[in-house]
Amino acid sequence: MRTSLNIPDDLLEEFDRTWQAEGFDSRSRAVREAMQEYIEAHTRLETVSGEVIAALAFDYQHERVIRDLHDVQHDFQDVITTTSHTHEGNWCLETVFCRGEAARVRDLVYRLRDFDAVGRVNVLLLRS
């Protein structure tokens, strides 16, 4: 199946450098693998149940979203056990360590991903 996507030039250039450096045969092959990894991560997050331990790492533009992120963290203090924070200029990197019901941790991940000023949210998930 053929499809088209609108991708910023700088992101596409970086993606092309990456897949070529890793030795893929084509951009299409690299896109398929990236999509598969995304689907696997999403499926794992969606299907896990019961008590989990998780580390959520996310980057964000401090001035645009800090108050909202603090509100979210307060809303989820029942599962957040520890946070770690560092920054470079207006960009911050935060790691939130969680323990609790998988559904509650999943809700936290989706709340964090709702913000335009959050670049990405990576999840390391363990079943306890």
UniProtKB/TrEMBL annotation:
CDD domains: RHH_NikR_HicB-like. One of its GO terms (biological process) is regulation of DNA-templated transcription. Residues 1-40 form the Ribbon-helix-helix protein CopG domain. Residues 55-124 form the Transcription factor NikR nickel binding C-terminal domain. Keywords: DNA-binding, Transcription, Transcription regulation. InterPro entries: Acetolactate_synth/TF_NikR_C, ACT-like_dom_sf, Arc_rbn_hlx_hlx, CopG, CopG/NikR_regulator, Ribbon_hlx_hlx, TF_NikR_Ni-bd_C. GO terms for molecular function: DNA binding. Pfam families: NikR_C, RHH_1. Belongs to the transcriptional regulatory CopG/NikR family. This is CopG family transcriptional regulator.
